[in-house]
Write a structure and sequence with these properties.
This protein is α+β, with helices and mostly antiparallel strands. It has one domain. It is about 35% helix and about 20% strand. It is built from three helices and three strands; from the N terminus they run βββααα. Strands 1-2-3 form a three-stranded antiparallel β-sheet, sandwiched between helices. The longest helix has 25 residues. About 20% of the residues are buried.
Length: about 130
């Protein structure tokens, strides 16, 4: 059991159908596609309680986590051990999110400017 847990954390890729024209290589993921990265915290009922969105697809989840405002600097070893046992809950939450909002599985817009990226992020955050 994970007593006093306030959230389950996981990274999520939001695929882009086309490589961005602005720094496209930075959005290229280890999975061989282009994407925007997000970090999501959900509770044990799959309710999303916090979102950090807009990272480049090439950025590792751990870098996003270490740069986030909610990173826990104390008791990291204990936290990681306990989190590993319940991580499936966050995967379930993200799967539900993509199932409910099909457009999160891939956007068909080309990012030509920061404004285009802003529109895509707004649509993702609305979901």
């Amino acid at each position: 059991m994970f007593l006093h847990c306030v959230g389950l954390i996981d990274g999520m890729l939001f695929p882009l159908a086309f490589g961005p024209m602005l720094s496209g290589e930075d959005y290229f993921t280890r999975k061989g596609n282009y994407a925007v990265k997000g970090l999501i915290i959900c509770d044990d009922t799959s309710k999303i309680t916090w979102v950090e969105m807009g990272w480049l697809g090439s950025v590792h989840d751990n870098q996003v986590w270490l740069s986030s405002d909610v990173y826990l600097r104390d008791d990291q070893g204990y936290f990681n051990t306990k989190l590993a046992k319940v991580q499936i809950k966050s995967k379930h939450c993200l799967g539900l999110l993509k199932a409910w909002f099909q457009h999160l599985q891939g956007h068909h817009w080309v990012i030509k400017s920061k404004g285009d990226l802003g529109v895509i992020l707004q649509v993702m955050m609305c979901a």
